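Batch job 17 of 40 flagged for manual review because the log was empty.
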Amino acid sequence: MVYSEDDKESLIRQFLPKIKHHALRYHHIVQSVLELDDLISAGIKGLLEALNKYNPSLNIPLISFIDYRIRGAIVDEIRSLDVFSKEFRKKVENVKKTYKSLKNSGKDPTDEEIAASLNITQKELQEVYQSITASEIISLDNFVITKNGDKLNLLDIISDEKNIFEDIKFRELKQKLSSAIEKLSETEKLVISLYYYEELNMKEIAQVLGISLSRVSQIHGKTLLKLKNFLLEEAD
């Protein structure tokens, strides 16, 4: 379908609140290097690309496809920047590897055990948890290919996108992840629910829970670490 310029402007106005919504969800992570308007512009670009690439034969609703492309374009804008130094990535990877190693001993490691194993302070560990939220913006969009050849990513699995790429493998993976979420603490489950299901941004979650924005990022980062480790164990 060919869209006129008037059609495109109308759709931009229609989806602008959704574009701003996704931009705000990511902006707190990269606000030191990207303006909110940069992310909004990327979202608008994603919308226009969706109109050009949409194929009705995929049996995916246009609205769902547009929303998917908007979010993808915003994440691509973040990914295009080399904002994560080697030192930053090394710290995050060290915590991930240490968590996985200690987890293999049979129980969920405490922060004290992780910090002691890495010979770092509790404060430094909390800073890494906060950083994981930023680094996972990159890795959460890594694609997993289903047996039907469709592309999925962890963000889709967590956020329960019912209209996108449903198949047996997808449902099984969602069930396994749901089981993992049930093992989280009540606070961790609440942060996951508010961020991925209710789609609140970090600032809104901080207001709901009555805690600081940095504390929400720390909880979110550690929770992603736990969930991703669970998926890796399932894949193995």
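Reviewer: the log was empty due to a logging misconfiguration, but the result itself is present. The beta strands are 144-145, 151-152. Unflagging and moving on to job 18.
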